[in-house]
Amino acid sequence: MLYRIGRALFRFMFTVFFRLRALGMENVPTHGAVVLCGNHTSLLDPPLLGTPLKRMVHFMAKAELFDIPVLGSIISRVGAFPVKRGGVSRESIRLAVQLLRDGNMLGVFPEGSRNNAGGMGKKGAASLALKSGAAVVPVAIIGNYSLFRRMTIVYGKPLDLSPFAAASSEDLEQATEAIMKEIRRLHTAYSKG
Q: Phospholipid/glycerol acyltransferase domain: which residues (predicted)?
């Protein structure tokens, strides 16, 4: 319930103040495990990633945020889970994989995020997808959150990561590069539109 209310508020905010245009939502599976992989430039990227979609999107967040009295309670109730300072712990990875195996959607920023806060960093997104069998949907966030200037979010078609199923270090690097290449392609293709 809280997630739906928050999504409606963010949808209103993004539509009115940033003229949000969402494209390719039909590319996001309506059920089953999905990893949304987006580029990351702002603290507003996580809510933007999930706002246009009907499904709940789970995110990793800095563990310290969960210690803030009201905020910690709110972000847990909207599907965030903690990551300890200094990198993603095994516990966080286990929880992320379990969420995916249970058929949920996870938002990840494979480039490592803005200053690596809340992102999986390099090979994490590919690793989670391959461990859980989740669909990987590349997402391009276009714009810089200037008031009353157009923001665009483009959901690409799910990527086939089966060639990297061995999940060796080299496979994960190549899978990550395939994800990032598609995000860059979407960004370039829709930046001028």
A: 34-144
49 torsion bin: left (phi>0), alpha (psi -120 to 50), beta (else): alpha
pLDDT tens per residue, range 82-103: 877 666 678 888 899 999 999 9
Q: Supply 141's token pair.
A: 């966030």
Nearest-angstrom CA–CA distance, 70 and 189: 41
Residue-wise pLDDT tens digits, 38-87: 998 888 999 999 999 999 999 887 788 888 888 888 888 888 888 776 66
Residue 71: Cβ within 10 Å count: 12
DSSP string, 38-58: E---STTHHHHHHTT-SS-EE
Integer distance in angstroms from the first to the last C-alpha of the chain? Answer: 35
Residues found in the chain: 193
Cα separation, 189 vs 138, in Å, equals 13
With 0-12 / 13-18 / 19 or more C-beta atoms within 10 angstroms meaning exposed / middle / buried, residue 153 is buried
Output the six-digit token pair for 128. Answer: 């989670």
Residue 22, CB-side half-sphere exposure with 13 Å CA sphere: 15
